[in-house]
Amino acid sequence: MTVLFDPSPQILAPTSTGDLFPVRRVFCVGRNYADHAREMGSDPDREPPFFFTKWAETVIGDGAELPYPQATTNFHHEVELVVAIGAGGRNISAAEALNHVWGYAVGLDMTRRDLQFAARDTGRPWDTGKNVEAASPLGCIHPAAGFGDGSSGRIELKVNGQVRQSSDISQMIWSAPEVIACLSGYYRLHPGDLIYTGTPAGVGPVVPGDEMRAEIDGLSPLRVRVVGPAR
Ligand code: MN
Predict the structure, then answer these.
(1) 73 DSSP assignment
(2) What is the CATH number of the domain that holds 156?
(3) 5 in any annotated domain
(4) Domain annotation covers residue 13
């Protein structure tokens, strides 16, 4: 038998140990900081976290160029703590959750906000707003042992040197262990899964030529340049 065309390449994310982390799936948490929930017009009550997904192939690395996507005029940055799963499981308890974490990274959940809002306002899925080519930039993944439990640390995004988002990951409504516990109640998690854990207030648009720099204390910065339209 012949394989008819080249299979899609495995995404291999760099880590601070020099090893490569094979990305399996990308999960994202919606509205996990109260100030961002408010700026989106939602009540930041502690209702259970909700999730959406992106293709693994939307992950791009530090230093990459991000082609401005088609079908939007309002492409937004969302800086987020990313949890990298190293051991799978279903129905993981929050108390056990950190045993399933390989490490952490800085990520960007780039969003076609105009399409996301149109979907939200009509009760339709978010996919075209969120699951967009190159829309999941990911920094170098650091092993959990060197970073701690992901419960606190400054999180910040600058565009062209100007601070756009600045908060602390202690402000997350649902902690990383709680997110893992909830998500593993819906899916068996697998090694290689990434969880983008939500963004603080200050989201906003970028345009071609913009330089984004995302930082979380204790992790490598993530630098991405937005370039001319995707072809
Ligand atoms: Mn997000």
Answers:
(1) S
(2) 3.90.850.10
(3) no
(4) no
Kindly state the helix (H) or strand (E) to which residue 213 belongs, with its residue range: strand 211-216
Report how far residue 169's alpha carbon sits from residue 199's, in angstroms, rounded to the nearest whole number: 9
Residues with Cβ within 5 Å of ion ligand 1? 78, 109, 199
- Which contiguous run of DSSP H or E holds residue 97? helix 94-97
Average confidence (pLDDT) over 6-15: 97
CA 136 – ligand 1 centroid, Å:
10
Counting the structural domains of the chain, the total is 1
Task: Give the Å distance between the CA of 78 and the centre of ligand 1.
Answer: 6
CA–centroid distance, residue 165 to ligand 1 (Å): 13
What is the distance in A from the centroid of ligand 1 to the CA of 138? Answer: 13
Q: How far is the CA of 77 from the centre of ligand 1 (A)?
A: 9
Instruction: Answer whether residue 42 is part of any domain.
Output: yes
CA distance linking residue 143 with residue 66, whole number of Å: 26
Ligand 1 center–CA 96 separation, angstroms = 25
Q: Whole-model pTM?
A: 0.97
20-79 per-position pLDDT tens digit: 999 999 999 998 998 888 888 887 777 889 999 999 999 999 999 999 999 999 999 999
Q: Which pLDDT score, from 0 to 100, does residue 153 have? A: 95
What pLDDT was estimated at residue 50? 93
The full length of the chain comes to: 231
